[in-house]
Amino acid sequence: MKILTYLSNLGWKNQKEMVKIWESNWKEKGFDPIILTDSDADTHPYYQTLKRNMEFSHFRIMKKDLSAYGFSCWARWLAYANQDIKEQFYVSDYDVIN
After folding, report:
1. DSSP letter at 65?
2. Residues 6/81, Cβ–Cβ less than 8 Å
3. In the chain, at which end, N or C, are there fewer CB atoms within 10 A of the end residue's CB?
4. How far is CA 8 from CA 1, 4, 80, 86, in A?
5. For residues 66 and 89, what is the distance between their CA atoms, to the nearest angstrom?
6. Residues 42-91 pLDDT 10s
7. 31/33 Cα distance (integer angstroms)
8. Quick check: 2 and 34 in contact, CB under 8 A?
C-alpha cells in the first residue's frame, strides 16, 4: 500500500534527514512511501486560488502574513489530490514513524 508525505523545503534543521528516516521506516513495514514536494502542489489547477485566498484570509484574521509553513499545511492537500493513484493510499506527516 502507498503512503504519501509532503515535504516543503522550509529550511528546518534535519528536515531532509527526518524524511529519509520516515521513508526507510515505512518501507521496512511493507509500504510504498512516496514523498511529494512543492512542485506536486503548485501544478494543481487551484494552487494560485488557494494561495491568494489563504494569504488574504490569514492576514485579515491574524493581521500578519501567512508563513511558508502555514501555507504548506494547506498546499499539501493539493499535492495529494494531484496524484493519479487508483488504489487506496494513506497520507502521513514525515514525523510520524510506524
Report:
1. P
2. no
3. N
4. 23, 13, 13, 25
5. 30
6. 999 999 999 999 999 999 999 999 999 999 999 999 999 999 999 999 99
7. 6
8. yes
